[in-house]
Amino acid sequence: MKKMSRRTLARIITFVSAAAVALALFTGTAVYKAIQYERKSEAMYRQNLAAAGEYLNDINDSILKGIYSASAADQSSMCADVWMNAYEAKNAISALPISDIDMEKCYAFLSKTAEYARATEKQIAAGKTVDDNAHATFLNIKKKTAALAADFEKIQKIYLDTNEKIAGGIDFSFEIPKTIASASATSESLNTLNKNLSNAPKLIYDGPFSDAVNEKQPQMLLGLKEITLQKASEIAERFLKGENGVLKAAGTKKGNLPCFTFTKGNAYLEISVQGGKVVSFNTSDEPAKTNFSAEECEKIASRFLKNTGYESMKCDYYELANHVYVMNFHYMAGDVNCYTDLIKVKVNAETGKVCGFDAATYLTNHRERSYTFPLTAAKAQRAVSKYLRVKDVKKALIPNAAEKEVLCYEYRCVSPEKNELLVFIDAATGKQADLLILQITANGVLTK
Phi then psi for 431, rounded to 5 degrees? Predict the structure, then answer.
């Protein structure tokens, strides 16, 4: 046998080594790509699991508003929301690692829900209304959809709490089958996952009655003179007298409501350039517990507003979050609730001290007005859905979608399912101006 030369042997060793390195690099790259793919897949699965619950909850909210509205436009909007969200819920669920056989009844329910809503929307467009049969059907859909949404939320919580990988396959043996089995067959533009945030319960200040204050000229400041930085500093010092630290000018804020900004310790303050009004105030308090009740904090906030120069303010809505009560106050013009003129006050529930305040909406909208109600409350009430029981009626001034002010009668109502709603009927036209769902919990009273 011919002996292999050293050069040949060296070449072979070099080739084998290079091949080994190449193989290692290839294997390493493949493993890295596999890990990246797994992470992306897991993120997608978690996103779709969350989306499924959000779309189902949106269906419930849309139905609750639509079936108790006397407005054909609201009923049509309900139908559109229901069929779109039903299709999106089905798409989100079908993107999860679940057997289609296991989910067959769920898919059928969502498809038929979408088809029914589309058919009803066409009937409304043709001049018909949601009759008793349609009303009952939508309530049935709402009941089953709510149960399905609750199941998906439980599943989502399990995966969040355990960090178990959804890619391994979702086990629906604990909750879902019972709900899906009861999903009746009587009864498919993509929305973003953030859509649910816009439907979340909010204070009137932050949600349905918060005017686009960034685009309007502040009514209360019209004709007032501009102040100097020195004058603004004096106003800020008086306002922050109870705060520790040295007052510092932090700059200016532009826009339709220009302000001088100041800091003092952990406090931040805005003073309007025009008129020298305190626009907002916030501290970075982090309370650890709740020592004061909602009633006590409301009295503290009311006293603060009166001492700050804001009279005739009433609080109806509030929320406790992270041991801070966030309270929504509106102006009372006699017996008229002016939801256009809003102020938010935050109270530290550990210390009982005001830790936040925002009067931008009030400064933007408040002015002298005339209040004329052509219709009586009894006559306007004819526009309230026959399915609702009226508990109380008030006079109200609200903003509409066109940012115009509308005088209304506000009817606080209860549905047969014990949901509480606010129905606003235009006091001039007798037509529904708005409808809100009340969310009453141990931590607050919100609207959606």
Answer: -105, 155
| Confidence check: pLDDT of 269 > 90 | yes
- Residue among 290, 265, 279 at smallest CA distance from 348: 290
Helix (H) or strand (E) holding 190: none
Q: Within 10 A of 369 (CB to CB), how many other CB atoms are there?
A: 14
Report the CATH number of the 377-447 domain. 3.10.450
Q: CA 187, 192, 198: angle at the middle one, nearest 5? A: 85
Tell me the C-alpha to C-alpha distance, in Å, between residue 244 and each of 2, 263, 296: 94, 11, 25
From-to residues of CATH 3.10.450 in the chain:
377-447
16-68 tens-digit pLDDT: 565 655 555 555 555 544 445 455 666 777 777 788 888 888 888 888 888 88
Question: Which comes out higher in pLDDT, residue 157 or 437?
Answer: 437
Concatenated DSSP letters of 411-426: EEEE-TT--EEEEEEE
Q: What is the pTM of this model?
A: 0.66
DSSP notation for 230-287: HHHHHHHHHHTTTS-S--EEEEEE-SSS-EEEEEETTEEEEEETBT--EEEEEE----
In this structure, what token pair is assigned to residue 419? 């949901």
